[in-house]
Amino acid sequence: MLRGLSRYWPALLAVLLSALWAILVLLVLDSRVAETVNLADAASESLIALLALSWIAAVVHARLGRQQALPLTAGFVIVYLGAFQDVLDEFLATDSLAASGLENVGIPTGMFLVSIGLLLWSRSNQWMVHQLSQQKDRYKSLSDRDSLTALYNRRYFRRALHTMTVVSRAAQQPVSLLMIDIDDFKAHNDRYGHAAGDEVLLSLSQLLRQGLRENDVPCRYGGEEFVVILPATARGQAEQIAERLRHEFAELKFQPTPESSIRKTLSVGVAELTLADTTRSFVGRADNALYAAKSDGKNTVRYLPAVHVA
Hints:
single chain; alpha+beta; Alpha-Beta Plaits; 2 domains; elongated; disordered N terminus
């Protein structure tokens, strides 16, 4: 029970100080009953005192940091005492310097402390909001990234492709797609293990990050398949980019065991967006071109033109 009461010590302290101050005014100071009492002033000053008391309890319940709670609590206690003194003055005429000082100086001082506390509270809230915003952006970024390669994942790819097709058509600009697959990746994994397979995936992801333009969007589509959105890129330039990536990857050496040094190759399918394409048919044509590259012996780039049905 004592532990529970300790949470309300500012409010209890304010009440205690108010009671002591009233006793001092009544018994020690030279006081006399006022001939007339302004009930409106007494009611408004009592309301201020009660509001200050409620704010003290609110500050305690909010469990603010010490830096914010101390000036807020001290300020509201001083405002409460000043308002309480004003209420007493409506009933008791006092000429005490202490009472006059508390009334004239206490309330402005208390409000100054409250202002400082609110400013510190506001800054603390702004910092917390900034931190939460950063965490939200970080989690959103993580949800859009592949955990191994740190490239964009399939979910992000679908959103980006939809946006890119809309923008390219509005601007009447071409957009192309590369569907990339690491040749014989399953056999590599089965023979050398998943760690060796991850090394190949990471090497390709690094090549894509370094070998593409700033506006290109490389994504891990799934497993050993990757896809690249090439904005403002027609078929011819897309094929050149694909061929360069295929050649550079074929030059990389991997050493899955101390005794072995091997090279890996890529098959790439290329598609250019047409007016008749949906995002699904666009991806489907790139995937069919990849299948054609695989069927032609792998380690090659293939483009399949769109088939228009009359």
